[in-house]
Amino acid sequence: MLIxxxxxxxxxxxxxxxxxxxxxxxxxxxxxxxxxxxxxxPDANEFFANVAQLEAALKAEDKRATQAAASxxxxxxxxxxxxxxxxxxxxxxxxxxxxxxxVTETFGDYDFDTALIRLxxxxxxxxxxxxxxxxxxxxxxxxxxxLDVVHLELPNTFHTRGFYERAGLxxxxxxxxxxxxxxxxxxxxxxxxINWAKTMQNKGPR
Length: 206
Ligand SMILES: [Zn+2]
What we know:
This protein is of the alpha+beta class. It is built from 6 helices and 8 strands; from the N terminus they run βαααβββββααββα.
């Protein structure tokens, strides 16, 4: 099974938490994920060189170097949690799904069965390189899916507020940028959406 919601929490991209499940055990898992607002963070120094290499490789549109840097980040992440390293595959232009009302582009996904993360280097329409921040944030998002499944006993790895916050913490930590606490707005059906306007005003704790 693949998760391929846009899978990137970048400013401007609409992020909505998953529907609240009805089944008792899934609901219990969903609530646990929602309440878990932080994770143990690895030593950021282990990441900075690879993160810088990732930025340079994306700028140079070097797929092989992008894949190497993303894989190295996945290795450091897995070492910190003492879990199996997920595979990482970097691909070209993002797949698009077009319906009457929307166009969805897949930024990344995570395969539950093979623990493979796939990331796309180029946008789907005019095939521009994916912005570094978007790419790194997608990688962190997929790493958090892997962590949910293999380590946090969250086998459905729902997109909850807690999930997005864990992924956001990891992203800012490895990039060395200040965390912006996410501001949530209620969305019909007991769901939540990231309020980017308010989040971007949020400078976080000083
Ligand atoms: Zn996801």
